[in-house]
Amino acid sequence: MLQGKTILITGGTGSFGKKFITRILAEDVKKVIIFSRDELKQYEMKQEFTDFRLRFFIGDVRDKDRLYRAFDGVDIVIHAAAMKHVDACEYNPFEAVKTNIHGAQNVIEAAIDRGVEKVIALSTDKAASPVNLYGATKLASDKLFVAANSYVGEKHTMFSVVRYGNVAGSRGSVVPFFKKIKSTGKIPITDPRMTRFWITLEQGVQFVLDNLERMQGGEIFVPKIPSMKVTDLAEAIAPECEIEIVGIRPGEKLHEAMIMEDDARHTREYDTYYVIQPEFSWWTNEERQNSKELSDQFKYTSDTNDDWLTIEELRQFSEEL
Known about the structure:
By secondary structure, this protein is of the alpha/beta class. The chain is 35% helix and 22% strand. The strands form 5 sheets. Strands 3-2-1-4-5-6-11-16-15-17 form a 10-stranded mixed beta sheet, sandwiched between helices. Strands 7-10 form a two-stranded parallel ribbon. Strands 8-13 form a two-stranded parallel sheet. Strand 15 (267-269) and strand 16 form a beta hairpin.
């Protein structure tokens, strides 16, 4: 699928971008372009990756003209650029809107006009029934990417979304935070009931690659992944530490969701993932016979999940990060 293709990753200097690049450079790709706005991170990445097929492009998704230049000759776009820290988005709300919503629309328009074949946008569990601005902007972004399939006109660009939970070990993840502060003897927990979905960077990259191949345009792909209790994670990383309950922060959920009841009626279940299908009149899916319908009361949330990580499994994962 990737043979001879030129692939661009927005926000490519982030945790996902680095892992994704490591994977696809092992394939017979023509070129990989890192599009991001931080020159220092690009400089550091150039020291780490020396493959001649790798290119670096300074730019911001808020700048449509720059995207038009960057997308010239590009076959596949992975849109990973975003403001994603809940606190930062709450305190700088319109900055989040400009990056996560306006930036998404700029990516869409540049992709269509430049003849990009496929675009996958990375989303988050916080976009399902959002309670914070980050989740709200990502929900709007998801809607934009799904709807983009309806106005490509005679072009052949396809847009889909991948939505998954907290990525273990990524920048801003609670795992490196717990490791950093365990020397203090205390681990702050916002609420002892809190649960989260768990996915590794490797799993996230593989899920994106799988859906690049299966996408028809307009789907939101959701992987089946385990849940974990935040108290179990603290026990796994710092069993010697005292747990300090500090209270839920502004914009934070007790439990996360990836599919809510209102989406269940047009969601299909497969062996290892779900697909929230678009409600387009022209939508067809030849693989429906390999999936099953869900109850209209179905929801996929971190506290009602059937798959849970044990403390020992969490300890093993955290030691590998």
